[in-house]
Amino acid sequence: xxxxxxxxxxxxxxxxxxxxxxxxxxxxPPLKKIKHTAGLLFSxxxxxxxxxxxxxxxxxxxxxxGFEYGQRHDVEMxxxxxxxxxxxxxxxxxxxKLGEDHVINLAGLGQISETSLTRDVEIGFHAxxxxxxFVPGRNLxxxxxxxxxxxxxxxxxxxxxxxxxxxxxxxxxxxxxxEAQMKAISLGLGRPYSLHTPLMHLSKSGAWTLAKNLGGDRxxxxxxxxxxxxxxxxxxxxxxxxxxxxxxPACELRANGWTEFSSRAA
Length: 266
Known about the structure:
The protein is an alpha/beta fold. It contains nine helices and seven strands, in the order αβαβααβααβαβαββα. The strands form two sheets. It has a five-stranded parallel β-sheet with strand order 3-2-1-4-5, sandwiched between helices. Strands 6-7 form a two-stranded antiparallel sheet.
C-alpha cells in the first residue's frame, strides 16, 4: 500500500478539484464574497479593469500582475497604473483591498512570436483562420507565471478576463483550454488553484454593463478614459468608447460594445 505524501493530489481529489474549477469557470457574476487573496492578470485594458473591480468586490485582497512581453501596445503598461490609482482614489472601499502590483518580464515570448502584437506588421489572418494578433501560448504562459507567483505569495485564486463571446477566436481563451491548464497547474504545484473568469460569457456590451453594476458611472468613466485596448498602441485620440486607432479588431469590438451599451442605457 502506497502512503500518499502530504500536499500531493490524489486522483479522487484531482477529479473533485477539476469539477469545482469548471463550475467556477462557468459561473457568471456576481459571486459570493470570498475571504482569500486573488491574483489578477491585469493588462490595463477594458476587460482586466472590469475584472479588477469584480475581484475587489469579491475577494478580501487583490494583487495585480502585469506582463511585459514586447507587446506593440506597451502603452498599456502605463495605463494599468493609471487605472489602479484611479480606482484607489474613487473607491475607498476597494482601495484598502488593493495589494501589491507585480510586473513579470516575458521578453522571450515576444522574441519567438511573429505576430501583429509583437511586430510592426499589418493585422490580418493566417491561412488557418486565426488572426495574426494571436500570440501562441500567451494566456497559458501568463497563467503559469501567475500561479508560480501565487505559490510564493500565498494565493491560489486567479482572476482573468478571457471571454468566449466577443473575442478574436483565440484558442487559449476557450473554457476547455483553461480547464486543462488549471488542472496541469494544480497538479504541477501540488495545490488546487482556481481560475475565475467573470467575463467568460459576456459580450463587450455586457462587460460595460458589468462595470456599471459594480461601480456606477465613475467606474465606467475610468475604464473609458484610463484603459487601453488598441492593438496598434494608438493612444492620442479619445473616442466616445475610449482611446485607440478605431480600426483594429480590438477597437472595433470595444466601440461596438460601447454603442450597444449606450443605446440600452439611454
